[in-house]
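User: Please look over both lines:
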Amino acid sequence: MMRLDKLLSELTPVSRRELKQIIRAGRVTVNEICVVSGEQKVDPERDRICLDGTLLCYRRFRTFAMDKPTGVLTAARDRNQLTVLDLLPSEWKGLDLFPVGRLDKDTSGLLLLTNDGEFAHQVISPKYQVKKTYLARTEGTVTPEDQKAFAEGLILRDGLRTLPAVLEPCGRDRCFVTVEEGKYHQVRRMLSAVGKPVLELRRLSIGGLKIAELSFQNGFCELSSEQCDLVLPGYHSKMLKK
């Protein structure tokens, strides 16, 4: 159970002050009964809640895509530096969102934010083989030998052996890298290991979800169940059966 005004703040882009006026004006019904107090407790998964006659659909778990800029930390909070959660629109800051995996401070591109722990775990875990593709600008041009080394898996300076990855050249100093794991600075370290230090790095896709096909507003967009299933095929249909 939760307060009606808190629920409405999650379901609409309206400010708390405006919601208070809307509720007092009798524009909200719960199970066909007009409610004029935001303090009333409701069950968002069972009660039928309408605003101006339009049914509001509650989603317990919500996932957003972000076009992360460089210079921002992928973290929930930091005392000294700007984080991805600091950039969230105010109406989403009460959803208990957290980043799915990490993009380092100097990397831009597709980042997911969710409050669904199981979804996040599966996206991150190599067990589920969710591919992440990056576009890198490097010093030098990748060679067939570099591609072979990526395909076989690299041993990095600290002894870490990476899973096989795909390296595709796309011009003199650019290449695509596709990995199924996300170790610390992994793509940068892999390219450095074959003598191609990274100058710029941008994540283009996670699974079948491509940043170029998303419609962002101020750097964010909420994903539908169908879009989440592009990341993890069949995930939401499996969850509904539980």
User: Anything to note?
Assistant: The two ends are 21 Å apart (CA to CA). Residues 16-24 form the longest helix (9 residues). The domain at 2-55 is CATH 3.10.290.10 (Structural Genomics Hypothetical 15.5 Kd Protein In mrcA-pckA Intergenic Region; Chain A).
